[in-house]
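Q: Joint fold for the lines below.
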Amino acid sequence: MNAAAMAVQFSVDGRPVSVSPTGSGNVNDTYLAIFRTTFSEERFILQRINGKVFADPSLIMQNLKVVTNHVHRRLEREADDADRIWQLPRIIPAKSGEDFLLDDEENVWRAISLIASASSYDAIHSLEHAHEAGFVLGQFQRLISDIDPARLHDTLEGFHVTPGYLAGLDAALETVQGRERAESTTEARTCLKFIATRREWCSVLEVACESGVLQVRPIHGDPKISNIMIDEDTGKGTSIIDLDTVKPGLVHYDFGDCLRSACNPAGEDEKDLETVFFDTDLCQAIVKGYMTFAGEFLTAADRHYLYDSIRLITFELGLRFFADFLAGDVYFKTQYDGHNLQRARVQFKLCESIETREPVIRRILDKCS
Ligand code: GN1
Ligand code: MG
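A: Joint structure:
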């Protein structure tokens, strides 16, 4: 069923003016819906959840409720002392009262409120923007830190467990198509070599977690720069969106993901690899912003693994893009042939840049935390 036909089934006043694709998500389909009455206008987000990625989308909606209720309560309690008004996306129920609807092909659709007077960006554009990305992530992790992880469903098993993605790559390499794609170009062969030399190291966070050095906590799961909402008036962070991957995990997955995304001014989709590098000035701004809140809940062991998390989550995303290229682009949406290969090359270039700058990054982490 098309998006406009789904939009009118949600509990919003007025009649639809437009329902058009928005955002740059790689997994779900997202639309901006505009409805008007004689006296007012309402804008909201309508999404079709990718059922191939999320096995049971109803669990996402349950997690979303737990998180938004909890965070809303805390924000209300703290509002008088806060330096800004924090916002949260809210579930807009269907007219039938459900939190989500199924279309005739069993796709899950849901509606959520728009964050008012705020914008997000696909790439970082200033030091202040970087500071706000860290600040917003630290605040969000703090706000969810007292949710018992057992109350959150594991909506995406194996998410950010790097050795699991390695196993996925190996499985793809066992297929005729995977083998052919891996051998098809110099670029693909270079990616394979890049991965091969980092196989042992890539279990670093999972080993620390299994041995009890690091603990599982509620996390955002996808705090890339395009999910950080910046207030159009003040330039300050006001919200973090895309709460589908909020679930139990390591806070390091979030920290690493935020830095790999926000310290690469070229963005994820760059074609010219020469422009891709890890900007340590941006890194310093993010870490400062993050530590405003995270300083409260990070242990000494947590701090010890922060550098590894930046390198690892960057490597991991490259690995995920590359494995998907070999598997025939079945997970991430693509705009052209070889898109996932190009995305992988960007992340591996960034990972190399992180490795070269290790001493500087460690100094920043030591100084700020
Ligand atoms: C996916 O769908 P989107 O764009 O919010 C992916 C993230 C990646 C990101 C890279 C559920 O996020 O893990 O970091 O692409 N989400 C899922 O852009 O796999
Ligand atoms: Mg996401």
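Q: Anything notable?
A: The chain has two domains: 1-114, 119-369. The domain at 119-369 is CATH 3.90.1200.10 (Aminoglycoside 3'-phosphotransferase; Chain: A, domain 2).
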